[in-house]
Fold each of these.
Amino acid sequence: MDSMRERFAPVVTRLLDEDPRVAVVLAEIGLAGFEEALRRHPDRVINVGIREQLLIGAAAGLALTGLRPVVHTFASFLVERPFEQIKLDLGHQDAGAVLVSAAASFDWPAGGFTHMSPGDVALLDTLDGWTVHVPGHPDEAATLLRHAVAAGDDKVYVRLSEQANAQAQPVDGSRFHPVRQGRAGVVVAVGPLLDPVLAATEGLDVTVLYATTVRPFDAAALRRATDTAGTDVVLVEPYLAGTSTSAANDALAHLPHRVLGLGVGRRELRRYGSVDEHVRAHGLDARTLRERIGGFLDVREGLRVRAQV
């Protein structure tokens, strides 16, 4: 199976051919994938070099002329380094763009902490009006990229990862998708963490919702799930733990409820290691997830251990 990032350039190249509004803005990273597109559309494939602030500024300028810029580099260079430009050049000027990241939270451990961005979604959450897609499979990435480009002049972030689920799920760019029904609680699995969550909850009497679009947060789907599964909720996100707990709390503000946010911890892991080692260190492997989900929801092998209070 090819990766999400390997799908990125072919999908966007086709969009360049199909839509004269689409432009691509790069900062060296990913340029090789657009060599043919650059020959066909030299005025709409732009490489600004290793200048991430300019990357966003140029995209905003293109948007203000009526183009639909697609902007790509590693997440830490796309969201964290040029955050002021995202805030002002895009947000303050009401200019839309599609930001497409690579490397996710820790997809390239050998790159060190400079190439890790577990806080990207939380950081964008401080700004108004962003749609955030977190695909869990290359097919989903292709679909969500098309959704993002077609979203008028909106501000959209598409978070690509080397980690992926074995099978694609239906995605529509807005709603959470129920993949398992239960009565002892709701687990929301985001993007590439669906497979670990399904393995972790095997045999447990819980509802599992699959989220690939996390902003706007699908409060209606969460409320529907709690009608039959109770109001204990576990969020399992591939970025900073707790990023969506406030959104879940807001969705259930009219009900007594509990929310547990699982994800990447704040403590920096200073050894390179492998992706799998980082997954285990942050407690995102199936065994640890089962312990934490089961303990919070008081369930084991389909049974509620004690009555919900």
Note: Confidence is low (pLDDT under 50) at residues 305-309.
Amino acid sequence: MLQMYDEPVVENEDESTTWIALSDLMTGLMAIFLTLSIAILVNQNAQRDEIVQDVQQALKKSGLEIETDPRTGDMNIAADFAFESGKAVLKPEGKAILDQLMPVFAKAVFDELSGEQQEEITRLIVEGHTDSVGSYASNMQLSTERANAVLSYIDTQMPDFPHKAELLAKMTAVGRGENDASPTENPADRRVLLRFDFKQPDWTKQPKKNQK
């Protein structure tokens, strides 16, 4: 006669119940983590938008006509006439732009932004660009030289202004070469952008309202 063994079945049922409970717990924890992550990103994006808007407002109040991306705050600090083709020497027109912009920009960042907002800005990227004429390697080098030319002019040729040292300490020169250039030669591609580099999200902190 066949004998029935119920004990193993009960053990298997207990194990299944345990795994289901663990799976539900992990799913709940993941949902909480995703909710917090989204809240942190939304809060940080709001802070960054406010930084960009505050700096743009400061420039506007000073009457500066600087081409600025309203979404990112990227500024075309050296227009198409700032560099000649194949050269990294700032023309007088480019220097005049820097003379007007840098004191106002430094004041906006270090006087008008809160300490918390300033901490969000890890670096101020001075980004050089070229047109599409020439080789990729030579244009990459040229674009870096143009970015460095801007930094050098601010450091050694511009008269002192409030927060000049703090501004230079935040600045980093990089080159983009012809990566964003038009397919054919375009003087407008010979430019330098000033852009914000923001710190990465801190997932250990709870999102909070930005206060000035």
Note: The chain has one domain: 36-198.
